[in-house]
Write a structure and sequence with these properties.
19 strands, 14-stranded antiparallel barrel, two-stranded antiparallel sheet, mainly beta, elongated
Amino acid sequence: MLNNRAIISVLMVAGTMAAAAQSSTNSPYTRYGLGDLSNNAFTNNVAMGGIGYGLRDQSHINMMNPASYSAVDSLSFMFDVAMSLKSSNYQENGFKSNAKNASFDNLAMQFRLHPRLGMVIAFTPYSTVGYSFSTTSPVEGVSDVTATNAFSGDGGLQQITAGLGFKILDNLSIGVNGGYLYGSMTYQSSIGFNTTSDQTNVYNTTDVKSYVVNFGLQYTQKINKNDNITLGLVYDLGHTLNSTSTKGIQVTDNSNYYSTKEEVFQNGYGVPHSFGAGLAYKHKNNLTVGIDYSLQKWSDVKYDNRTDCYNDRTRVAAGAEYLPNAIGRSYLERIRYRVGAYYATPYLRLPQYDGPKEYGVSAGFGLPLYLFQRNTILNITGQYVRVSPSISNMLSENRFVLKIGLTFNERWFMKWKVN
């Protein structure tokens, strides 16, 4: 039995690492800004629409609000690993295409340092860049000659985070996350012709080695014996990223490359001040309902040494989880049933119009597994995301995502007695 458990663990981690090695997105919109943003929502959070500011749960790690870390019990060591499978359908002016991707979502552990102090260490993505597309058109005034413009990009930012959650009072907790933000993003464009003429390549590579800091607070008020409500507040510190960007132009005749211009500049990018608030209502240990709101102040953030490329971004999400009976005899009674939805405005300000709005719906299950000494939860979430352009006849995206996460919750700190 132990061997089977070990095999399950190894397969899950191996599958996640394999996913991490693949391109995790294929969206032309990631050509702009820092790419597709992550919000530290784990698989169970995503199933509930991506809420988490007001959630306090001993069964899951909630990185959306570090104040929640103080909810971990004194005997538990939690370990969470997750991955995603995505299928994206794109449509523009009657043309359709499809892309399939896999991605690594998170690797995190949580444990208690003191009866009032919990800690989390995690590796999570911050943003991802991935696209490849081209357009071909005739050259005006020249017969039988066409020009092909090709665009490609990849990379992204990741963060290694350590966080603490401290319980000041029985119903009041605060927390802080601090992390190392790093990664590389490469953007390329080229123009070539169907003749033997030279091809021109334009490139921009940005390397980031910086930091992230965010703070959280949770206050829980009992309504009666069986019901309580938790208010959660979060703040992310905005700042200019420590980064190095290399921009250049190359000309090639398909056998030799000639660098015609290259420049290097420092600290041309940033991340925003962000504010979030959420409410979560809980009935016994059976029903949780929550709503979150967040505001990211992107409009003042630098992009490529400019401050006119972003809009402030808002996000509203709501979700619920229902657990019929945690100790019920029927397996169906012990499953966590989740549902949620969200809507987000764009943070991108494209050359001629704003970036796309985004909304999504999700549903999922938390399936209890008996591994090692305690329940382990297999979280499965299905999500539909609609990326809708701000003007007609522009690129739209329908994204279908399957997220799989495994949360180990083991009694590492139990003191055993021998009679």
